[in-house]
């Protein structure tokens, strides 16, 4: 599908774009030994660490939009690969804090560079990363992401 047809809903197009992006990032990350989901975790962790934060798994889950249980699974895999460290939070023994190892930082910097190049390719039809159309799209996406979304529950009169 190269152009949207009148029958394509915005939801379908968002889904298609998300899948296109996930597949492209998965392929680009494979030589670095990462998946798209793992990249999302280490890149977010990298950014948070640069601001001095050592986030908990829960905080990282909230930041990425991933389920906490999935973040825990990803964190364990990344820890066994030597890319992150998991440690109990001294202020809350139930919480687990995450930090990139030196190896994790090096791999993450490489991964970010690869994904930035991929992002430039994706956004080229809009004029590139700093183009007005890209800024407008980013604003619209933020609006949609900020909107609450909960599934509707069928009205059951028997209860």
From TrEMBL:
Keyword annotations: DNA-binding, Transcription, Transcription regulation
Domain of life: Bacteria
This protein's record includes keyword Transcription regulation: yes
SMART domains in the record: HTH_MARR
PROSITE patterns: HTH_MARR_2 (PS50995)
InterPro entries, per the entry: HTH_MarR-typ, MarR/SlyA-like, WH-like_DNA-bd_sf, WH_DNA-bd_sf
Protein's name in the database: MarR family winged helix-turn-helix transcriptional regulator
Domain HTH marR-type: 1-143
């Amino acid at each position: 599908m190269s152009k949207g047809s009148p029958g394509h809903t915005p939801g379908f197009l968002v889904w298609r774009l998300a899948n296109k992006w996930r597949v492209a990032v998965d392929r680009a990350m494979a030589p670095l030994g990462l998946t798209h989901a793992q990249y999302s975790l280490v890149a977010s962790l990298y950014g948070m660490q640069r601001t001095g934060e050592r986030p908990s798994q829960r905080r990282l889950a909230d930041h990425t939009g991933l389920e906490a249980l999935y973040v825990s699974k990803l964190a364990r895999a990344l820890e066994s690969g030597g890319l992150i460290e998991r440690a109990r939070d001294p202020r809350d023994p139930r919480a687990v804090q995450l930090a990139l190892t030196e190896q994790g930082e090096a791999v993450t910097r490489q991964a970010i560079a690869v994904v930035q190049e991929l992002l430039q390719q994706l956004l080229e039809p809009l004029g590139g990363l700093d183009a007005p159309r890209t800024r407008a799209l980013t604003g619209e996406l933020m609006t949609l992401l900020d909107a609450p979304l909960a599934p509707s529950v069928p009205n059951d009169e028997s209860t």
